[in-house]
Amino acid sequence: MAEKVERLRFVEWGGGVSPFAVGSKKLGMWLFIVSDSLTFSGLLVGYSYVRIANERWPMPFEFWPTIVMATVMTFCLLSSSLTMALAVRASSLGDRARVIRFIALTMLGGILFVLLHAKEWAGLIAEGVRLWENPWGVPLFGASFFTLTGLHMLHVISGVIYLGVIALGVSRGRFTHEDVEISGLYWHFVDLVWMFIFPLVYLLSVKMP
Amino acid sequence: MRQAVATHEAPKGFIRRYIFSTDHKVIGLQYLFLALAAVAIGIVLSLYMRLRLAWPTERWPLLAKLFPNAMAGGTISPEFYLSLVTMHGTIMVFFVLTTAPLGGFGNYFLPIQVGAHDMAFPVLNMLSFWVTLAGFLVLMAAFFVSGGAPISGWTAYAPLSAIGEIAGPGLGMGQNLWILSIALFCIASLLGALNFITTTLNLRTKGMAMTRLPLTVWAWFTTAVLALLAFPVLLAGGILLLLDRVAGTSFFVPGGLIVSDQILPHKGGSPLLWQHLFWFFGHPEVYIAILPGMGITSHVLSTFARKPIFGYRAMVTAIFAIGLLGFLVWGHHMFVSGMSPYSAIAFSLLTLSIGVPSAIKTFNWLATLYKARIRFTVPMLFALGFVSIFVTGGLSGIILGQTSLDILMHDTYFVVAHFHLIMGVAAIFGIFAGTYYWFPKMFGRMMNDTLGKLHFWLTFIGIYAIFIPMHILGIAGHPRRYAETVGFDFLTPLQPIHVFITIAALITAGAQLLFFFNFFWSIWKGQKAETNPWRATTLEWTVPSPPPHDNFGPQTPVVHHGPYEYSVPGAAEDYLLQTAPPAPAKS
Q: Which H or E element spans position B366?
């Protein structure tokens, strides 16, 4: 009897369909995201470690302009996740023109984020923040700030380029719905990373009265 | 749902076919040959170290020809000795123990064993090899830059590795190249791991349920999961270390450090952070090296015992348990780093608990052998050798896993003996078992049996002759990484042991020439192999030797049996291929 049940289960296995019904490309992206999130975790743990290890970690950020601007950046990025979700939905409905429009909006959100971020970096550098020193004390403040946000910004820039390629491909009818969905996974992941960086790096470094 | 993964025609032209090939079999061979080159270099480096330890005052003008700058005057300076330690360790851990069993055999046989025509992402697979090769070349370049190879060990402990040339020769450009090489290796591993996991889950052929996967596939799959989760953390550590070195940050360098009579400008970092990041990767890496060996051993033992593997499900669970626990024990490398005794106890208990799945595997292997009609072929001998060495090396692990004993043994030769047996030699025995076992499939010819047996016995006895005395050195308190053994009263009586070990190492290394000769001679001159020379059951033995470009041709195999159906009662032969027609249903 047990043997029979066992055999039935094997017969059902038609081959080729994964146990989670996820296509190979999408599974590959999920695995990349798992791996990449561990790289960010490593950096965030490192940041937390040196932050705890140093007394008087600098908390120099003013509500205005730093936190407000960072909130605007967060808004740009989160809105771009919304437009990305809309692009994926349009793609599932086969509406190619809307896919391209929404991906363009997503890229716009990403580009705005990067521009605001670059402006912020320039301001901090003008104030004398470097990888090895800053006006407020513990030098690792600048080091961890630039490393974390820099790696994240690199991901956003790569994401914008990636989405551009996808949009171009969609307009030529080369990419399928799954490709759009996969690029969406990456984009949401990049946003998610920011949702860790924003509180840990910005909100925890607000100047206390 | 299933995606077309392979063109069914072999690409034309030598370059597309053998150099920039997307065929998993060619890529697997490329990995194997890379590992073969790397292991030859790694062995030579270890012999240099052994000669220095046995005869410390001797001059070696002939050996100096290989390293004219570093060995000026024909002697091995303590600094150059540390370069040798670093490069030997890095080459062996990354480019042999990770590359051969996972990149080599995994690439070649995982797709065939699951019944796929190729990996899920053939182009990423090709990239993975070429990035690995680039990493290897960058590492080798460290020998030739000013200052030579780094001296900070394969663990690149900060602050030694983080502050540049001021800390010693090789810590300038050499260390930068080391980090770059490891970063490339991390990226290559990610690409490989993606492929292994996706292929295992998505490209299995009809009938190949997860519970019918050969244990080799389970081992590669778990290893790929470990690589996917461990290497990115090393990458993060590598980024921070490189920034410390070239951009003036201080993640791993504490304030007020005085090196070579200079106060360093760094401030606020922690060398322990590097240790945490490194060992979070480093301990799973040990299992990345050994798990494929366990898979191959299970596979080979079952084949030549002509019995089903004992406790298939327990074996799979044990592989996963070892992989999972492997992520929770990194602290046992840091018992003497000043960590809280409470965390040390937690790490210690978790470490000892790895003994449970390890013992499950060992007893299952023994139970597989129990009352079996064993065929003592060369791959079988190496698989049995694997079990022996795994037990020996594992026992000293139980000693080192206890905090109180580790404080005594830490940084002595006892540790060197332990990790060489369990991680180095056991994994190498797995690689040898795999090579002798699959050689007929890969090259269509058999390896010479007599030479293989000679190779096994010399290696097996030689390995124990090298590493058992090292335990004694360690218990006697001999520190590791010391080039200098003269001038210390407590080391003088131990010198004859060093001489003994070195002679044993020279003989064992010589025995490997038999393997190299047998390998290359058999590629061209070996006896022709049939499709299934070992009368084994899994899918790779249903296709010609060597398999055609798309493995199975237009017809995908259909699997009806588990992977280890040997000596099935009522069957015509003592083995049932996985593709054999199903037995008529009993009512």
A: helix B355-369
Angle at B262 between CA B258 and CA B266, to 5 degrees: 65
**How far does chain A reach from its first CA to its final CA, in angstroms?**
74
For the question of an ipTM over 0.90, the answer is yes
Partners of residue A31 in chain B, C-beta under 8 Å: 193-194, 197-198, 228
Cβ-based neighbour number of residue A200 at 10 Å: 16
- Note whether residue B578 is domain-resident: no
Closest approach of chain B CAs to the CA of A65, in angstroms? 26
Chain A residues near residue B194 by CB distance under 8 angstroms: 28, 31-32, 35
Q: How far is A124 from chain B (nearest CA, A)?
A: 16
Q: Which residue has the tokens 């989160």?
A: A78
Task: Give the position of tokens 């026992």.
Answer: B395
CATH of the domain at A33: 1.20.120.80
B-chain residues within 8 Å CB-CB of A17?
1-2
CA angle B23, B24, B25 (to 5 degrees): 90
For chain A, strand residue ranges (E) read none
Cβ–Cβ of A24/B231 closer than 8 Å?
A: no
Of A35, A42, A140, the CB nearest to B277: A42
HSE, CB side, 13 Å, CA atoms: give it for residue B425.
33
* pLDDT of A7: 47
Q: What percent of chain B has pLDDT over 90?
A: 85
pLDDT value for B318: 97
Question: Does some domain include residue A16?
Answer: no
Q: Regarding predicted confidence, which is higher, A18 or B55? A: B55
Who among B121, B201, B236 is closest to A43 (CB)? B236
Structurally, chain A folds into a number of domains equal to: 1
List, for residues B243-285, the tens digit of each pLDDT value.
Answer: 999 999 999 999 989 998 999 988 889 999 999 999 999 999 9
The reply to whether residue A24 touches residue B203, judged by beta carbons under 8 angstroms, is yes
Q: Is residue A161 part of a domain?
A: yes
pTM, two decimals, is: 0.94
Q: How far apart are CA B569 and CA B549, in angstroms?
A: 36
CB contact under 8 A, A39 and B233: yes
Measured between alpha carbons, how far is B285 from B275 in angstroms, rounded to an integer? 14
Residue A1 has pLDDT above 50, yes or no: no
Distance CA B344, CA B570 (A): 55
pLDDT of residue A50 exceeding 80? yes
CATH number assigned to the domain comprising residue B81: 1.20.210.10
3-class DSSP assignment, residue B11: coil
In a domain, residue B565? The reply is no
CB-based contact A23 B3, cutoff 8 Å: yes
Residue B577 lies in a domain: no
Domain assignment present for A56 = yes
Closest CB from B121, B206, B236 relative to A14: B206
The per-residue pLDDT for range B465-522, each reduced to its tens digit, is 999 999 999 999 999 999 988 889 999 999 999 999 999 999 999 999 999 999 999 9
Range of the domain at A145: 23-205
Burial class (CB in 10 A: 0-12, 13-18, 19+), B20: middle
Q: Is residue A12 part of a domain?
A: no
Beta-carbon separation of A31 and B276 below 8 A: no
Residue B547 covered by a domain: no
Could you tell me if B558 and B212 are in contact, meaning their C-beta atoms sit under 8 angstroms apart?
A: no
Please count the residues of chain B: 587
Tokens 């332990």 label which residue? Answer: B418
**A105: distance to nearest CA of chain B, Å?**
30
How many structural domains is chain B composed of? 1
| Full domain range(s) for residue B79 | 24-253+266-542
Task: Say if the Cβ atoms of A140 and B251 lie within 8 Å.
Answer: yes
CA angle B180, B273, B236 (to 5 degrees): 35
Contact B151, B170 (CB under 8 A): yes
Cβ–Cβ below 8 Å for B209 and A13: yes
